[in-house]
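[09:14] KT: can someone run the structure on this one? pasting the chain below
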Amino acid sequence: MIRFQQNARPRTDTPSHLFAIGQTVRMKSRGGLLLKTAELFEIKSRLPVKDGSPQYRIRSDQETHERVTTEDNLEPAGNPVAGNNPAA
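[09:31] RB: done, structure tokens below
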């Protein structure tokens, strides 16, 4: 018999998703490999955590398929590129 604890607090050891559905992101480059870093992706859905990192289903307008990736492979697309700040 399974008993559930009343008034139990939700578990907080599961990381929460950083990106929202509909948000534009880009893939981080890995070890100097040139990806299509200018390629932007839209978050289509949030998926369960895998190996401690939240997962996402993402899609690019330039591709005919969706991808699944973990949060540690993504960065917000709105981040300015270092050294490209005319005010500095």
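[09:33] KT: thanks! Confidence is low (pLDDT under 50) at residues 80-88.
[09:34] RB: yep, looked fine to me
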